[in-house]
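Dear colleagues,

As part of the handover before I leave the project, I'm documenting each prediction I ran so the next person doesn't have to rerun anything. This entry is a single chain, and its sequence is reproduced below.
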Amino acid sequence: MSIGVTMSNPVSLWRNRNFMLFLTAQTLSSVGDSFSYVAIPLLVLHTTGSIVQMGLVTGVTGVASIGTGLVAGVIADRVNRQALLMVCDIARFLLYGLIPVVWLFSPQLWFIYVVVPLGAVFGMLFRVGYVTVVPKLVSSDQITEANGRLYSSYAVAAVGGPTAAGFISGIFNPSVAIAVDSVSFAVSAIGLLLLRRRTDAAERAAQSETAQTETAQTETAQTETAQSETAQSETAQSETAQTGTAQTDSGSKSEEKRPARQGIRTDFLIGAKFLWANEILRPLTIRLSILTFLTYGVTDLIVFHIKHDLKHSDTFAGYVLSAGTVGTFIASSLVARLRKRFGFGKCWTVAFVLCGAAVAGIGLTGVIPVVALLAMVMLACTGVAGICSMSFRQEVTPSDLLGRVTAAFWTIHSALGPIGAAVLTAAASGYGVRSVGLVAGIVISLTAVTAVATPMWRGVKPQPDEADPTEQEHTEQTPAEAHADSEAAVNQEVN
């Protein structure tokens, strides 16, 4: 892994060149993402006129994403993560670029069922790789702030994206908006390439400076305590021989470890076992599985409600979803302060209770500004909950295990999402958005409330924050040791 090194005395994020370049590249990509966020449902609706087909495309895409989650973590933990992100961007540039080309000749719905799920495969790989990169760009106490900045930047880009996508779709057709999305992935790949070059140069400079410092310290130590160092060296060699190759030398902690090659099932179980062993991640994953089932198809409901029930144009759908993304910007601006004051559990729980209320209200109103306001509340709440969840997971997971834990987390809690999207949209087709949205919203709020009875609500802090400062070095090794024990246990169970 060649992405930046976490610093003990971190500079401001605004002055962190690697983070800012990463932020800029991904902001440009998010502009395109916001186009497809509106354009894909509109393209399906234009082609078929069916909300059921919209739900099926969403469901198939979700299945592809979840299936990729089984191997995404293993890939992210074993390859250069920057290269992985660039490959994902280039692949999506090519895939989404094919849609407007095909639509120039004749709309083909089957092509959507092929290309969009393939795009989701690379999207999942990108999401897992992206999460593992952030902790390498900033210090540990800046993770929540960095995630908030990224979320904020995406939100700013997304405010104009859906509006522009709706406008372009109204004047031309949704395939043109998807073409813009395609170009954005190419721009993002270029930005990541620049990040790699800049980071490599920065690391070489840092390594050179560190080497010079270590050389000076070594010469001084050899002059003053030669006999003591000899004895310590012999002791260290003896301990290393006893320990064996299962442990990594403490002098190389700054280097990212590569896990041994194992079966896909074993690697996935290692990530899942870590989730289950953590008293906060376990109840979080269970509740998010239910919530994902209920929320996966909400965007389709909003688009269908605006187009079918309220009889408005594509442009209005873009306006509403743009207004909704303002909620994401609000979330990213407030989340660091909210979590610092109230803790992870309370922020997450209250956010999803309010999200449920917003979902319930969307189908009950026929006024476009009110629909937009409720969409904004919904995305603000899911934004706060999502940033808190991702930051906590990054804080408590060892770096060499983060890819597998992230993939297991998203795969498990997203597994019911495609089914939920298909059920939600089919139910809306038969019973209407009003009834389906009301029931879904109530269940969302009730599910979130149950977190009060779990350790999530008590807000247990990550172990590194609770450690005795005098034992900092030992504490830094503990996650790796726990990870090794976890791998050994899973291997024993599988074998």
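The CA atoms of residues 223 and 286 lie 59 Å apart. Confidence is low (pLDDT under 50) at residues 197-203, 220-257, 461-495.

All the best with the project,
I.
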